[in-house]
Amino acid sequence: MDVDLHIATADLGGWDTHEHQPWVFNNLVKTLSESVMAFYNDLNAYHDKLTILVMSEFGRRVKGNRSNGTDHGYGGVMFALGKNIKGGQMYGKWNGYSRYNRLSSSNRRIIDTTLRRKRHQKNLPRF
Q1: Main-chain dihedrals φ then ψ at residue 78, nearest 5 degrees
Q2: Is 102 helix (H, G, I), strand (E, B) or coil?
Q3: Cα(2)–Cα(46) distance, rounded to whole angstroms?
Q4: Which is it for strands 59-60 and 72-73: parallel, antiparallel or unpaired?
Q5: Which one of 4, 62, 122, 127 is separated from 100 by 20 to 30 angstroms, measured CA to CA?
Q6: Nearest to 126 by CA among 104, 106, 102, 100
């Protein structure tokens, strides 16, 4: 079924793991992995056009807290999946673990660049 869909979003909550992170995180990663795999496989007819971005809206600290979890931090994670993704590498600049380091890329910039490249347009509105 072709519905002329260009952009879609989905949310998976529960990542705010201030406590019991080893158990909660493992289950979340399993759910995320299985869901992304099922979605990608269901859309196999569109792999030439499909790009999936998975990202966190905020980061976590590296060091755990007293509740066996982690608190909010400055880092985050994003990955991309698609036939035309040049994978197997890290993109961006790693600034180390210092809390004073700034992120090298924002989610908005990566989404903006991905949309522009997929749509082959330079006149899309900026985020």
Answers
A1: -150, 140
A2: coil
A3: 10
A4: antiparallel
A5: 127
A6: 106
User: What would the two tokens of residue 16 be?
Assistant: 């705010």
Residue 101: count other Cβ atoms within 10 Å of its Cβ: 13
Residue at token pair 């908005």:
108
* Segment 111-127, tens digit of pLDDT: 888 877 776 655 544 44
Q: Which H or E run contains 84?
A: none
Question: Cβ distance 36 to 29 under 8 Å?
Answer: no
Tell me which residue of 99, 93, 54 sits closest to 74, measured CA to CA. 99
Say if residues 72 and 62 touch (Cβ distance below 8 Å): no
For residue 19, the 8-state DSSP code is S
pTM (predicted TM-score): 0.75
pLDDT class of 42 with cuts at 50, 70, 90: very high
Amino acid at 15: W
Backbone φ and ψ for 38, nearest 5 degrees, come out as -65, -45
**67: nearest Cα among 17, 14, 19:** 19
